[in-house]
Description:
By secondary structure, the chain is an alpha/beta fold. It has helices at residues 3-14, 28-37, 44-64, 81-88, 100-113, 155-169, 185-191, 198-213, 273-282; strands at 18-19, 69-73, 92-97, 122-123, 141-145, 174-180, 223-230, 235-242, 246-250, 253-257, 262-269, 285-292, 298-305, 337-338. Mean pLDDT is 88; it is low at 313-343.
Amino acid sequence: MSPSFLEDVIAGLSFPQKTLPPKYFYDAAGSRLFEKICRLPEYYVTRTERALLSHAASEIAALTGPARAVVEFGSGSCAKTPILLSAVDPSAYVPIDISKDFIWESAARLSKIFAHMPIYPLEGDFTGALRLPKAIESMPRLGFFPGSTIGNLLVPAAVDLLRTMAATLGAGSMLLIGIDRIKDADILLPAYDDAQGVTAAFNLNLLHRINRELGGSVPVDAFHHLVRWNDAEARIEMHLEAARDVHFSVDGRRFSMAEGETIHTENSLKYGPRDASVLLRAGGWTPIADWTDPDGFFSLILAKEGAASSAPGLSQPADDPENYGIASQRPDEMRVKRAFMAQ
Length: 343
């Protein structure tokens, strides 16, 4: 039993609006369910990002240069990773994931494709400080954060995570990040509430995990998957809604929920082009190029470590609060826009 898992669950269920951290979705069962989600017809994110990666691979390689160690945050099954690794000719690859079994399975598959590339799997929670393998200490680094996972965090936490990534990767590093765009709710809602019910199973699996690992007695059949589009906050929300009054315990702690009460399990924030640029700058990264599909559904952004100067001859450190207000700079002056032609 993970002490942090127990502490986070107890704390989250004690709030008036009950909540659970989405990072705990990803046990072995949850990770496999998420891979199924990525193949669903409603879930545009994976196929759009793969197409962007394939289209932009040579440009990314030219901008990053050869022999960087690629560090992937939340690597999962590494499904998109071979496209990037084939293009940039990395000196090493470090996949980071919270699911130990999943990350080792994925690393084993990649080692067969890239037999001469050193791979150093790292089990851990990348939202906190991590020490990278000593073997890549002298190598320049390219962080890879695909899949719009940054959207699972509210803006202050997203900024903190980007700064943590900058500290982990070090001076001179670069970051290739996927960021989901704001779009119509009739496209977004099915992507998080698919007809086959895979996303619902993914959400409910968190309750099964609590019962299995934390001695919980949650009546899983009393909950159903609920998705909302919060337009004011530009985010999808996933909840588990109680279909009846319920009472349960977790590690001996008692909890009650009324019919209709929810456990908020995930946010997925969506960003406009300018919003994404400001977010990265606030987190200590300067965007240098981006690629977006013709429908404007999704963006890949390449950024370099360090905040750009706010005025000629002046510079600001990444942790200067003034970096939160760089919206006056035109993002198109700092980015190279790219679009791929649909096949």
